[in-house]
């Protein structure tokens, strides 16, 4: 090669025997010149194409797996056709409300030092991305589906998904549903120590007054409007007769009374317009393949213990007795795996620890906390661990849109007389029944999951917690407005 005069500076081009033999034969027989020129042109074209291919495969600019991950464009996003709305979901409009009702609450949270209430608001409510979970392949933070999501983040996750949802309409005239993206849980948390009730309720009252001033609100007396709140409804229903626990009065305001309230815990007796939505757990997939992979892994994970309890004895509450009884039984039994949550330790906020414990057990205890429901129920479903309840209000009367009516197909309810022999009661359940229940629990994972806000309908390929809510809201609005 070195002896040949160079026509260009592409040094990595290998010498082409085809090209040289061609020029040799041309010298011998010039009569069929035209054909040969055509052939040469064709060969040259092929050669150039091949060079181009080479350039792409070995290009020094091809992305490195980690360092340029943030800059890498998603190729599938470029050539995607517009997403179409699921025909079971009515077009919805997101009300434009002042940032003091959402973004400013987040900003105020972020500006403070991380605290129990405020460390979770990053990444639109997803929280801190997790590198990896034990046993899951890959540790690319950029594409992760795992986050240390706080239990109160549902209101932010709902908003983030709704904003990019294909059923969202920008025209209120075309909308059947109206979503009000107020971060009521963040407001309630910020105001819980405010002793002046007028001040504590101020933002909620202001929001209600604003909604009442909108013509679209009056079209159906607010019945086509919805709020999603990330905390139990008790945080928004301060009673003048009961002890002040820091709640405001948002859900007791007359303007809100006809709206549909999506909440992680509905009031079992007074929450006539409240519907339960799942607490967020740690998994926020973008595709159905990610979900299927996780489900497959759960089916094969070895369950070494009969039951597990993640939690601690509740402080200053009459439920202390029950939770301590469960905890004591767990400590005494070598068939129970405890993860004790003590003030000052971080184990119970560590998703790896929580899921690791729950993945090793057949059953996960869900005794009531200060309220009936626990985020832990959704962590246990995510871990394929069959939840064990001590009250029907911990799930059965809460999440009617999400859970099978046949409660015994996916969970266990222990009656008060069974509370002191948990191991005996659970040990009695036949192995085949346990397998069937676990399969049902694993099957529930997609619909109880908050998909990643970046997910698109075509890529996601399943209905997540927010899609399920929108489908059910669509049915509900159809019957209410008739
Ligand atoms: C509470 O705050 C409001 C508004 O600032 C004020 O008018 C009211 O007097 C306060 N109430 C009490 C009991 O301090
Ligand atoms: C709620 O609905 C009732 C009954 O339809 C109606 O009388 C009331 O005015 C509505 N409330 C609001 C705030 O529009």
Estimate the mean pLDDT confidence.
83
State the helical fraction. 25-40%
Q: What portion of the residues fall into strands of 2 or more residues?
A: 5-15%
Number of helices: 16
Q: What is the overall silhouette?
A: globular
Class by SSE composition: alpha/beta
| Terminal-residue CA separation | 84 Å
> What are the segments in which pLDDT stays under 50 over at least 5 consecutive residues?
1-31, 53-78
What's the number of domains?
2
Small ligands present: 2-acetamido-2-deoxy-beta-D-glucopyranose
Description:
36% of the residues lie in helices and 10% in strands. It has 482 residues and is of the alpha/beta class. It has two domains: 85-281 and 453-480, no CATH class; 297-446, Glycogen Phosphorylase B (Rossmann fold, 3-Layer(aba) Sandwich), CATH 3.40.50.2000. The strands form three sheets. It has a five-stranded parallel beta sheet with strand order 1-4-5-6-7. It starts with 16 loop residues before the first helix and ends with a helix. The model is unreliable at 1-31 and 53-78 (pLDDT under 50). One 2-acetamido-2-deoxy-beta-D-glucopyranose binds next to helix 7. It is found in: Golgi apparatus membrane. Belongs to the glycosyltransferase 47 family.
Can you tag this structure with a few keywords?
single chain, 482 residues, alpha/beta, Rossmann fold, 2 domains, 16 helices, 12 strands, globular, disordered N terminus, binds 2-acetamido-2-deoxy-beta-D-glucopyranose
